[in-house]
Amino acid sequence: MKSTNRMGDRFRSMLAASAGIELPGCYDVLSAMLLERAGFPAVFMSGYGVAASFLGNPDIGLTSLVETSLLAKNISRSIHVPLVVDADNGYGNEDNVVRTVHELESAGAGAMILEDQVFPKRCGHAANKAVLPLEEYMRKLECALATRETSMCIVARTDALSIDEGILRAKRFHAAGADVTLVDGLPSLEALKRVGDEVPGHKIINLIYGGKTPLLSANELHDLGFKIVLYSTPALYTATHTMIQIMRVLRETGRLDSISEQSVHFKDFQHLIEGGYFSRSGGEALRRALPGAMPATPPQSVSAANPFVPERATQRQHALASLPAE
After folding, report:
1. Cα 248 to the chain's mean position, in Å?
2. Is pLDDT at 273 greater than 90 in this prediction?
3. Number of H-type helices and E-type strands within the chain
4. CA dist., res. 85 & res. 265, Å (int)
5. Distance (Å, whole) CA 76 – CA 7
6. Smallest Cα–Cα separation from 195: which of 175, 169, 176, 231?
7. Residue in 41, 123, 54, 53 with CA at minimum distance from that of residue 84
8. What is the pLDDT of residues 153-172, one digit of tens each?
9. DSSP H helical segments within the chain, as ranges?
10. Are 132 and 214 in contact (CB under 8 A)?
């Protein structure tokens, strides 16, 4: 390794620890900030979510490396936890994979996922997937592992159509040096148990509401041998559901106050955005240059009662409320 990667090192420490990891999927910078604010120790940049939110496209390989790396850079600069980036199938052949690794390292990613699907690819829980011949994918994976200049982790994913083939491939990925393996779209508890028992090393399981894999609890999945439980779509799906429901009410009533109880307050949102901005490197100088700006509010200092408001602001409000009236 030639260069430092603070988030790569941190993600490796999480892998080495005894506790399991719950990894939620974001689809843009704001959703990544909110997932960190919710207390998750790392965030996954979902290719499925980015295709939907950034391009309005299905997850069929239309997102480019340039778009992925730019968004990864913006997210990694906006959060204080490791970012795991979905790099699809590396956007081409071995040369493309080498560039993908370097771009995502430069973007500050703590880890990236490289899958073995052909182009155009499909969502891991969709039908009609197809994978590369194993040796062709192994060349791509070996290039990714060899070209790294930092401690960024490589997650090797297979979308093999049979459980036997998926286990075979995951074993090869682990033997080649992949930091983590992912057999996606596991359809049954039996399949989960087999992968947990037969595939060595750290493993991810990807859960999607309405997808193929049984929705067991995180503790159950950790006990089955999966170090990381990936919630790739809940942020996207719940945001979609909520926006449709609430905006329908607004359209029907024509009154903004009809949805106020379901809305973030202007000042709370300002605390979230400005506080997050000024908590970044150099933020204190920026805050001094803008009179009246919100104080820096790193995610760990937020109030449990209101996750958008700094703890010290909540304490100040309580103190003021206790003063006698003049």
Report:
1. 29
2. no
3. 13, 8
4. 31
5. 9
6. 169
7. 41
8. 999 999 999 999 999 999 99
9. 6-16, 29-37, 47-50, 65-76, 94-107, 134-147, 163-176, 189-198, 218-223, 234-253, 266-278, 283-289, 311-321
10. no
How far CA 112 is from CA of 59, 126, 160, in Å, comes to 17, 21, 19
Domain positions in the chain are 6-232, 264-326
Residue with tokens 């069929």: 60
Determine contact, residues 94/139, Cβ cutoff 8 Å.
yes
Position 194, amino acid: R
- For residue 83 the two structure tokens come to 């970012």
Tokens of 162: 């049979």
Widest Cα–Cα separation across the chain: 79
Q: What is the pTM of this model?
A: 0.85
Tokens linked to 2: 């030639």
Residue 307 confidence class, pLDDT cut points 50, 70, 90: low
pLDDT for 21-74, tens place per residue? 999 999 999 999 999 999 999 999 999 999 999 999 988 888 999 999 999 999
Q: Identify the CA nearest to 208 among candidates 180, 188, 240, 237.
A: 237
- What 3-state class would DSSP assign to 114? strand
Residue 61's closest CA among 118, 116, 100, 114?
118
Residue-level length of the chain? 326
Q: CATH homologous superfamily for 6-232?
A: Phosphoenolpyruvate-binding domains (3.20.20.60)
Q: What share of the chain is helix, strand, coil (3-state, %, to 5)?
A: 50, 15, 40
Written as one letter, the residue type at 263 is S
CA pair distance 54, 108, nearest whole angstrom: 20
Q: Can you say whether the dihedral through the CA atoms of 10, 12, 17, 22 is positive or negative?
A: positive
User: For residue 35, what are its two tokens?
Assistant: 């997932």
